[in-house]
Amino acid sequence: MNVPSLPLELVIAIARAVSEYSEHDKSALRAMSLACRAWLPVAHQRLFEHLEIHVEKLTTLVQFLRTENDSPLSKYILRIELSMRRRRDEGESIPLSVLSALMSKLPHLQSLTLLGFPFVKVDLQDSLNGCFTMRKISVDFFQEGVESTSQDFAAFINLFSDVEEVYIRGLDWSEFSWRYGLSPLLKIREHFQLEGASFQTRIKNLGIVAQDERTELMVLELVRRGPSVRSLTSISINGESLDTFVALSDLLKEAGESIVELRFGIFENLQVDSDLPTWRACEKKITACTSLRILELFTYVSLSTYDVTDTEGCTWSLIVSLLTTVSPSLRQIHILLQGSHKQFMDVFTAVEQNRKTRFDTVLSRFPHLQQVILTLSFENMGYDALMPMLERNTMRPVTDMIEKALPGIVSKGLLKLNVKTRD
Question: Is 353 among the domain residues?
């Protein structure tokens, strides 16, 4: 084949145009394959390493790779992004076996991004479980009307034996619709026990941003019931309810010393009599994470009314309480504070009255601590919707209060304040 003498930039521009703007029919795929052969030196620089394709063209891509076994595309595609043009209820579902057939033709694939999840288990054979490994899997259930089940998603995850990073966003499984009676977590555990459902994949880093608390609970439970309890090193979740904290702590208890990084939110003020004993029991389970290095907590200080002289159940008090029980192995603590700055100042001052819960005293129990980051992103709680953030002058009393309360941390140069303002 005669190789045109073209500048590298032009070759890359042509490749990008074919990859991003074509309909990925067989002629376009053949053109991509020919480009890899023609400009071999460029191909070695990953000419088509990132392929974006609509799921409707997935079968076409699989058929092309099957008919052209020696296609250079099979060697050079490292990352694939599959997106949906239409809602699943407007078109046919795609068997997971089609996706597994694609991955079997891409031996160097490292990253798989799914924008929408149209896949169903149907004819998928259990023998395909654990056939693939992946560096990163990202799934975004952003499409309205797209309904998958936990069984479909578990079957997808179980295609892989090992995944370094799994990031799940926007999940909203509707297979459970109860509101009363048995708690969501107990109901989920009862269901998965009967189904024998779990993720049989070794996941290293797990991130979940779910639209529905029950979905977050389901993912945590599917992970807890599989081999990931021995491979997980990092977990990041919303953690908006006490039930989620229970599920997370049970997973952390089994994962133990393998956990190095932990990120979750505390958004719910607890009832001291009914909820706090459960919280305390969960705190004890987290002590199993003896190798924890990085802890990131985020909370929203609401204007809900409670007596500031009795703050045990408020979110800031829960954060301080957690820091009194987690492993002293922590190297970095990051706390993101949102909501009402006035309410935070009231609660912070009240908690500081107890010598045992003074923030500086609590932080002194971490001998290897290298940095304490407080991100202050308080909101304008008035009616000025166009100015949601506070002014710098308004935040000055908050930062002064924090610095004054942390003489030990400040003197060591460990405190970092990230103050977000509108000016």
Answer: yes
**Structure confidence at residue 248 (pLDDT):** 96
Range of 392's domain?
290-423
Indicate whether 405 belongs to any domain: yes
Domain assignment present for 67: no
d(CA 384, CA 294): 36
CA 47 to CA 259: how far, in whole Å?
37
The token pair at 164 is 């370094």
Encode burial over 240-257: b for 16+ CB neighbours within 10 A, e otherwise. Answer: bbbbbbbbbbbbbbbbbe
- CB neighbour class for 94 (10 Å; exposed up to 12, middle 13-18, buried from 19): buried
Looking only at Cα atoms, what is the longest distance across the chain? 82
Based on the structure, what is the number of domains in the chain? 1
Residue 3 has pLDDT above 60, yes or no: no
The predicted pLDDT at position 220 comes to 95
pTM, whole model, 2 decimals?
A: 0.86
pLDDT band, residue 305 (cuts 50/70/90): very low
Q: Is residue 339 within 8 Å of residue 390, measured between CB atoms?
A: no
Q: Position 356: which residue type? A: K
- 317 within a domain of the structure (yes/no): yes
Per-residue pLDDT reduced to its tens digit, 30-67: 777 777 666 656 545 566 677 778 877 888 888 888 88
Instruction: Specify whether the CB–CB gap between 150 and 173 falls below 8 A.
Output: yes
Residue range 178-198: mean pLDDT, rounded: 78
Residue matched to tokens 């930062």: 399
Q: Are 40 and 11 in contact (CB under 8 A)?
A: no
Tell me the C-alpha distance between 345 and 336, whole Å.
15
